[in-house]
Specification:
about 200 residues; mainly beta; Immunoglobulin-like; disordered C terminus; metalloaminopeptidase activity
């Protein structure tokens, strides 16, 4: 169970994060203090618009390690609920996500702390495939808590990229080959060319 939770947090941390819902330090309504070493590796285009300040993540992931073939072979279906605070009156939320992460657009919901549903008008997958825009039917209210929910499917890759959750195999004491999911999330390997040892 602990291994599944570690894998769950690891795959989603890279797949959706990079880091998620980052707020630029020049925001008037919320200041995101970055460590000194980060100035060398985080460029302005990596930061997201200041719409929400993340407070809590609830991530559920169920890796399929023994596939029978078909469309779900070597995949990790999951969901996330992000509790966040509105910090700008804006009608668009932008999150980071890995380009291989398939978000179920019809599953995206947003509600406020009073359980009022906020209409999701559309999604935007622009030229920067690491950013995913969610256009709302109304503006966020500053100081109000929101819950953003969505479902996704992540690939369990073969390990050739050295990133995310990948499949690995081992031989047990009976000589049977078993599959396992293994995360690779070192900070310097998650964004090649941006991170260095400090």
């Amino acid at each position: 169970m602990v291994v599944i939770i570690i894998i769950l947090v690891s795959i989603f941390a890279f797949s959706v994060a990079n880091p998620p819902l980052q707020i630029p330090s020049n925001s008037q309504s919320y200041s995101h203090k970055l460590p000194n070493w980060s100035e060398k590796i985080i460029s302005p285009e990596d930061l997201l618009p200041p719409s929400l300040k993340p407070l809590h993540y609830e991530i559920k992931l169920q890796p399929i390690l023994y596939p029978e073939g078909g469309p779900n072979e070597w995949s990790a279906p999951g969901s996330v609920e992000i509790t966040a605070l509105g910090v700008s009156e804006i009608n668009k939320i932008v999150i980071h996500r890995h380009p291989d992460l398939k978000i179920n657009q019809t599953s995206i919901t947003l509600s406020d702390e009073f359980h009022n549903s906020i209409k999701v008008e559309s999604v935007e997958e622009g030229s920067d495939s690491h950013k995913y825009g969610i256009v709302l039917g109304s503006n966020l209210i500053i100081g109000r808590k929101y819950v953003l929910s969505l479902k996704f499917v992540a690939d369990i890759n073969d390990g050739s990229t050295g990133l995310g959750l990948y499949r690995a195999f081992y031989t047990d004491q009976n000589g049977d080959v078993k599959a396992e999911g293994s995360p690779q999330l070192n900070s310097w390997s998650m964004a090649p060319g941006k991170y260095s040892h400090v």
